[in-house]
């Protein structure tokens, strides 16, 4: 993400009041040609005092082993770009997702998960095609802290319809891999 977008995410995480593990990477100048990079100093891009104020409830890291994190029972939700692997992994482990599609198949996956199946909440619909319009990740519209916070709070409601549907789908995923579970 851009530095401006990272600050909006930080504000949303802090205001949400929920515990978090945030894998924060620097946006690639050209998302189609290079992977994201690391920030050299998080304190330079995050709101002043953010790391100190959130040290009891959150951790910001550069990279995380996604499958290992999703497998932890304490994980209550997952903010994802909606890539196919991330989508399958979150369903397998029964972790509800707030989807924030950026490009490629992520927009189709997000539409299916949010609109068709009700297995995720949206952060913001980006099916309008920033990248198709020739914008780089750094030029994409900034999603506000309010939009992000709303999605986080919706995602983490204990008795939400999305959470219940994801738990049911996770059970179906496991049954499908048993002997005779899928034809």
TrEMBL record:
InterPro entries from the UniProt entry: UDP-glycosyltransf_plant, UDP_glucos_trans, UDP_glycos_trans_CS
Keyword annotations from UniProtKB, A to Z: Glycosyltransferase, Transferase
Keyword flag Transferase: yes
Protein name in the entry: UDP-glycosyltransferase 71B6
Source organism, top-level taxon: Eukaryota
Family to which the UniProt record says this protein belongs: Belongs to the UDP-glycosyltransferase family.
Pfam families noted in UniProt: UDPGT
UniProt source species: Noccaea caerulescens
A single GO molecular function term of this UniProt record: UDP-glucosyltransferase activity
């Amino acid at each position: 993400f851009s530095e401006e977008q990272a600050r909006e995410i930080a504000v949303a995480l802090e205001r949400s009041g929920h515990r978090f593990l945030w894998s924060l990477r620097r946006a690639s100048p050209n998302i189609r040609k290079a992977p994201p990079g690391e920030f050299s100093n998080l304190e330079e891009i995050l709101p002043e005092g953010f790391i100190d104020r959130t040290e009891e409830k959150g951790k910001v890291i550069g990279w995380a082993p996604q499958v290992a994190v999703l497998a932890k029972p304490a994980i209550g939700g997952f903010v994802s770009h909606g890539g196919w692997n991330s989508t399958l992994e979150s369903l397998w482990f029964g972790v509800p997702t707030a989807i924030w599609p950026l490009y490629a198949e992520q927009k189709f996956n997000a539409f299916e998960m949010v609109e068709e199946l009700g297995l995720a909440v949206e952060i913001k619909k980006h099916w309008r095609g920033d990248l198709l319009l020739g914008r780089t990740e750094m030029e994409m519209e900034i999603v506000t802290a309010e939009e992000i916070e709303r999605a986080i709070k919706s995602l983490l409601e204990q008795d939400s319809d999305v959470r219940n549907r994801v738990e049911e789908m996770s059970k179906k995923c496991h049954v499908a891999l048993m002997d005779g579970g899928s034809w």
